[in-house]
Design goal:
By secondary structure, the protein is of the alpha+beta class. It has one domain. 28% of the residues lie in helices and 30% in strands. The chain contains two helices and seven strands; from the N terminus they run E-E-E-E-E-E-E-H-H. Strands 1, 2, 3, 4, 5, 6 and 7 form a seven-stranded antiparallel beta sheet that branches. The longest helix has 25 residues. It is globular, with a radius of gyration of 15 Å.
Length: 138
Amino acid sequence: MNPTLKTGDRLKVGPVKFSDVKIGDIVVFGPKNPTCHRVIGKYRARGQDYFLEKGDNRACGTVNNVSFEKILGRVNEIETSRGMVLCPEKTISKIGVVRLSILSFIFGACHCIKILLFGTRRNVFTRRIKFLFSRFFR
């Protein structure tokens, strides 16, 4: 999550409902090895809620799906190693939020088309869509 989060920063994480998470929020997930990433989309499939997440430092990395059950909470406050307190909503520009919203809409539409055309199995189509999203962040 560099440059937003750096080594030594302290995070104030609170519980969150699926409906309260917005695109651009930073969430902590994974009970074994907690990880912080930014939400770039959310959707519901087969009765479960999912987030699309991506680290800020992963310019051309992949977009990952994380189920809501793995979410430990949302970052409400960032205290830097210098003692400054940051609000996570202000760590991303308005252009970045618009970019993430457009990306989320396109990914959601492609996901629905994939399910309609190919069913729920993973295939080449999914890999190509993720590749296109990774190009969008360069």
